[in-house]
Amino acid sequence: MVMRLVVLATDRLTLRNVGRLADQIGLEMIEVSTFDELGDQPHPTAVVIDLELDDAIGAVETSKQQWPQAMLVGVVSKPGGGVWKRAELAGCDVVTTRGAVAKVVAKRLATWIEAPGGRRLRLFATSDVAGRLGLVERLEDPVAGPLAVYHIGGEICVVQDVCPHAGARLSQGEVNVGIVTCPEHGSQFDICSGERLRGPSDAGLATFRVVIEGGQAYVHLDQG
Prior knowledge:
The chain has 224 residues and is of the alpha/beta class. It has helices at residues 12-25, 35-39, 56-66, 82-90, 101-114; strands spanning 4-8, 28-32, 46-50, 71-76, 94-97, 120-125, 134-141, 145-152, 155-160, 175-176, 179-181, 188-190, 196-198, 207-213, 216-223.
C-alpha cells in the first residue's frame, strides 16, 4: 500500500521538515499550494495544512469530510492562540508548530499506521462538564455515524446515538442512573458499557474509548 503525505503549505521550514520526514520513513510526499489542488489528490495517509494560509480552517473541514480516515495535521508558527483551538474543533487530529512538525507527525503516524482507521476527535475541556450530568453533546461523524456523549458519575462515555432495534436517536431518550431508555420502543442500555438491559432490542450499543490529556477529553473513533 502506498502511504501518501499531502502538504498544503508555502512556508519553507514546514516543507523542509516534512520533506525530510517523508524521505526517512518512505512516504510519498505531495506538495500542493492551493485548496483546489488539495482536493484533487488520491487518498492520503496524512494531510498537513499550514493554518496561517487564508481559509485554512475551511480546508481542514473539507479534508476531514473527504478523507475521514486520514490523519489531519495543522501547523502554526507559534503555539497556542485561537487558530489552534479552531483547527482542533474543525477536525485536526493534532496541531503543532513548524519546528516540531516532523517529530510530532512521525510519532503520531507510527500509531496511526499500526492501527489503520484509528482516529480521535477533541470533545471539550473536562472542566466544561464538571457540573453537568447526563447528555452533554451530540456528534455527527462521517464514518462512525451519530454519537452521543454523556457525563455519568464523573466518567465521560460515548456511545452510538442509534438504537439497534429501529434506529431511534437515543440522545432524545430519558437518562436515569446511567441507563438510557429508547424514546420510541423502550429498550434500555447501560450508557458506559453499551450493554442491553431490556428489549425489544436484541443487541447492545457500540461504545467508543475516551481519553483525557492535559485537561481535554478526546474520543477515539475506533470502537472500544
